[in-house]
Write a sequence for this structure.
């Protein structure tokens, strides 16, 4: 198919980092999209063409789609031909998958289903969730047939299509990346693929739903395990007084070695969360995956103890903490190790003055408000006043900081950008 088009109405449920770009990309290709969210502010802003978070090129695409009249928003799930569920699947404080948003959607969605509808779960989920979603919908709608209970074509088609887009490159990767679509039956996968082919130029691999869920978790756990290796090396190098960046550079000269970059820890809504779904699914088997999570979760504490150790040599230490987001050049602070580090320093050392700077943010995130020893200032101001400079995020603006400003200060470069 050269120019695939989907003539039905698509409801995208959850207008967050994944749902909103998906809705926008479908609408900009002429599909009639209804964006659904429980947050009234998001619903109003998106309807006006305003983005609720920063992502390159999202604003122009959204205002274009709004101008074309292809996207509307609602707080209620409407009757539609296809549904894409992109709601959060966080973890509980006990590191168990919190699937409450997905099943709240199922409850609200069931009454709206009409024969022929496609339901695609995009949210990253533990293996078996799509099947459970189908059973939940089936229980609420005994008048319809579902893929798990008929041999012929069911009334409702259900699939899992995990996303792979990288924050900061969402609008490009949404279109270019290869995707996996796992259907509860092969026909479910094919129906969902027809919808995704409208905007996805990458290869679409068809599979079953549970394998697709597992593939997504395998991808993110792979990344977590590899970053944990880099972070563990960095802690070993600190102990031995070696430069981990030099060691990684040398090791990566080997033709089959590609060690990732150590950092202050792992943040974001995916890599720091999803591996726990595998641990939950197979606790006895997922030894390496659990250990990697623990290594990465321990890294912010290691950075805190290094800063505290350096601070001992100053009477009233002033520490500049540069960067708060979970990674470079985004304003997303979810699960950010930088925030964890700054909060721990502020709490553990009330006599320390902490000057925080992040050019991607306009103010301190709520988790850091209320500390009397903490101020949000401009980068140059923070560095000029500091005894210790802790670089926590490798934003481009920090890369170009004149090195002269760092002279005479203790520098803790957790991202290795000033070497
Ligand atoms: N990090 C390091 N060292 C590295 C690479 C990353 O410390 O060498 C840190 C980052 O600073 C950040 C965390 O890891 O704190 C995660 O960053 P990331 O860039 O690896 O991943 P995300 O969370 O921005 O996006 C990931 C992507 N997954 C993979 O690369 C496997 C993306 O493709 C997924 O779509 C996304 O998770 C998701 O939604 O699952």
């Amino acid at each position: 198919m050269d120019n695939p088009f989907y003539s039905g109405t698509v409801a995208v449920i959850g207008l967050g980092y994944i749902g909103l770009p998906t809705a926008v990309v479908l609408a900009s290709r002429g599909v009639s999209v209804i964006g659904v969210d429980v947050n009234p502010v998001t619903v109003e802003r998106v309807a006006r063409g305003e983005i609720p978070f920063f992502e390159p090129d999202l604003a122009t695409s959204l205002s274009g789609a709004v101008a074309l009249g292809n996207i509307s928003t609602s707080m209620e799930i409407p009757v539609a031909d296809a549904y894409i569920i992109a709601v959060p699947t966080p973890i509980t404080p006990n590191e168990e998958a919190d699937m409450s948003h997905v099943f709240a959607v199922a409850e609200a969605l069931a009454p709206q289903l009409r024969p022929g509808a496609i339901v695609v779960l995009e949210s990253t989920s533990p293996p078996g969730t799509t099947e459970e979603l189908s059973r939940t919908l089936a229980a609420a709608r005994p008048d319809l047939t579902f893929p798990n209970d008929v041999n012929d074509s069911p009334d409702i088609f259900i699939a899992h299509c995990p996303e792979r887009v990288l924050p900061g490159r969402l609008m490009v990767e949404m279109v270019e990346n290869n995707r996996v679509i796992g259907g509860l039956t092969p026909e479910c996968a094919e129906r969902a693929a027809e919808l995704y082919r409208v905007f996805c130029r990458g290869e679409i691999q068809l599979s079953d739903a549970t394998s697709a869920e597992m593939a997504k978790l395998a991808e993110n756990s792979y990344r977590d395990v590899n970053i944990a290796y880099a972070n563990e090396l960095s802690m070993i190098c600190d102990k031995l007084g070696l430069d981990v960046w030099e060691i990684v550079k040398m090791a990566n000269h080997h033709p089959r070695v590609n060690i990732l970059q150590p950092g202050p820890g792992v943040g974001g809504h995916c890599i720091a969360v999803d591996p726990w779904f595998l641990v939950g699914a197979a606790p006895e088997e997922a030894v390496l995956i659990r250990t990697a999570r623990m290594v990465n979760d321990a890294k912010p504490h290691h950075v805190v103890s290094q800063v505290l150790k350096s601070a001992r040599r100053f009477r009233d230490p002033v520490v500049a903490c540069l960067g708060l987001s979970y990674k470079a050049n985004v304003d997303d602070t979810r699960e950010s190790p930088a925030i964890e580090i700054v909060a721990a320093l502020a709490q553990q050392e009330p006599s320390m003055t902490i000057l925080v700077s992040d050019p991607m943010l306009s103010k301190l995130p709520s988790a850091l408000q209320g500390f009397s020893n903490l101020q949000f200032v401009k980068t140059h101001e923070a560095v000029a006043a500091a005894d210790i400079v802790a670089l926590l995020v490798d934003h481009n603006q920090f890369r170009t900081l004149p090195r002269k400003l760092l002279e005479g200060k203790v520098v803790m470069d957790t991202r290795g950008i000033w070497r």
Remarks:
- The pocket of SAJ is lined by residues 124, 163-167, 219-220, 223, 227, 260-261, 263, 266-268, 270-271, 326-327 (CB under 6 Å).
